[in-house]
Amino acid sequence: MDVFEAIRWRRSVRKxxxxxxxREKVLQILEAARIAPSSSNRQTWHFVVIDxxxxxxxxxxxxxxxxKLIIKWLKDAPLVIAxxxxxxxxxxxxxxxxxxxxxxxxxIAMTHICLAATALGIGTCFVGWFHHKKLKKLLGIPNRxxxxxLLVLGYPADESTGQGIGGIAPRPRKALEKIVxxxxxxxxx
Length: 189
Ligand SMILES: Cc1cc2nc3c(=O)[nH]c(=O)nc-3n(C[C@H](O)[C@H](O)[C@H](O)COP(=O)(O)O)c2cc1C
Known about the structure:
7 helices, NADH Oxidase, binds flavin mononucleotide
């Protein structure tokens, strides 16, 4: 699968087959994050790979914000990767100029993970709906780190790929002309 296919075929998958993701594939996926670009090449990220069922099951029970049902499906996932970041001096300096590069860095790395997983036939879903403090405690994450996002991974329960990975139809997207400008914001491309 080339990168365009992976981008096109990716869906948020929330139903998983009871099948572990092979260690070689997990390493391949993590390598995609390791070689991702980052501002000033600081690589201030850390990836917590969680395959312990007893921990995964606690995530929706203990750390969902508001309605716990929102991420109830997560308990059946075989793997969760917590994308964590801390800040280097360059990030603090960038912030003075209004740049949130630390968040951009971890987001790029997690996207690499997501697309690498898709290319290997693995379903993924980003999850941002969690209680940061409680999740940091559950995962033993040091104070200087924060969690940007979770990526939930697993082989899709539905193996058909008719409409995309997991047999899931694409969700609607805005038309290009609504999200693209030409030279200056608002000018038609
Ligand atoms: C930063 C981020 C946070 C998200 N948080 C959640 C979440 O907490 N629970 C959930 O079920 N889906 C979550 N999603 C998935 C989105 O709902 C999904 O990507 C969007 O509806 C588009 O659907 P698609 O991924 O199938 O194209 C999140 C996605 C992103 C990028």
